[in-house]
Amino acid sequence: MIQTQRRAQTRHKAGHAALLIAAGLVASLVLTGVAQAQPRMRYHNQTQAQALQLAPANRQAPDRSRARWSLAGAYRLLSANGLPSHSVGAFPNRGNPNAIRAQQVSLRLPAKPRLTGRATPLRLGFRFGVSREGVPFDPMAAEFWHGNPRSGWQYNALGGAVRLGLDANYAHVQPNGAYHYHGLPSGLLAGLSWSPQAHSPLVGYAADGFPIYALTGQQQGHVVEMTSSYRLKSGQRPGGNQPSGAYNGAFLQDYEFIAGSGSLDACNGTFTVSAEYPEGSYAYFLTRDFPVVPLCFAGQPDQSFALGPPGGRRGPGQGNGGQRPSPGSAPGFGRPPPPPGG
């Protein structure tokens, strides 16, 4: 009886999400914390989304994947070398000049995460989460209209307007050799025996401690595909000193959140019952459509997910040159509607 009541209370919170999510557009670029001495960014004037040209994932990582998870008090800890067990693309490649190298990944996240009742936007230089193998989900690209982060127009890493040298896992490499995912990690999902007929296996954890799954979840006792509630805006971009042409997915700002148009909230999350959480939990889902990897947090992300160490160099599609911002402080997607409270 107690478990039934708890499940009902949790589902009530998840249902309450729809009332708390504002049906507004993703707002303008947040400029707080923009460094004055950032490396110069690449100039771009492309406005048309293109089909991605993915490099085949037919190479082995330079070393065996190593990841060790443990619990310490209120935290879940990860020590890993940042390498996947699945095959990867050939790096360097056209669009990405960096070679994969083993890393020293040391992360912590809340073992019992809590919803904050507000969305914390993801920003450059802050990883959204990490796979169970220790490979980061770092979906943003440091590519802006005319190379200007203050333009308010950030290129969509999966929009194809700017070539980033992604492989078939929708991943590529940072200048320090760190391999990371921008989209659905195809090789990882195959290795986990993902099936459309079953709830997704655990893919990883977000920086706020909530689990990450892919594509399929369970709602009302049925396995369903989880779908994004973001849609392309209708009409034309402003033009002038801003991009022109129809909203086509080249930029993050080409999309808007429409509550109820999909099964997920503004942070690509919802309540689900899984093998890891038989009583149910809020969870994030990787989706087929934008944003694919979530672009905001429903809980409080841990600062260990900020990129570092200081002094790193930015390359095509990479982070913030090693600075360690708060997740909502550097340029990025804007301020999304709030996720559920609780």
How would you describe this structure to a colleague?
The structure is a single chain. The chain has one domain (1-342). 7% of the residues lie in helices and 19% in strands. It has two helices and 17 strands. β5 and β6 form a beta hairpin. It is globular. Residues 1-39 and 309-323 have low confidence and may be disordered.
User: What is the chain-wise order of helices and strands?
Assistant: HEEEEEEEEHEEEEEEEEE
Number of domains: 1
Structural class: mainly beta
Across the major sheet, the strand order is 6-5-9-10-16-15
What percent of the residues sit in helical stretches (DSSP H or I)?
under 10%
**Distance separating the two termini:** 22 Å
Q: Counting H and I runs of at least 4 residues, what is the number of helices?
A: 2
* Oligomeric state of the chains present here: single chain
Largest sheet: 6 strands, mixed
Mean pLDDT figure: 84
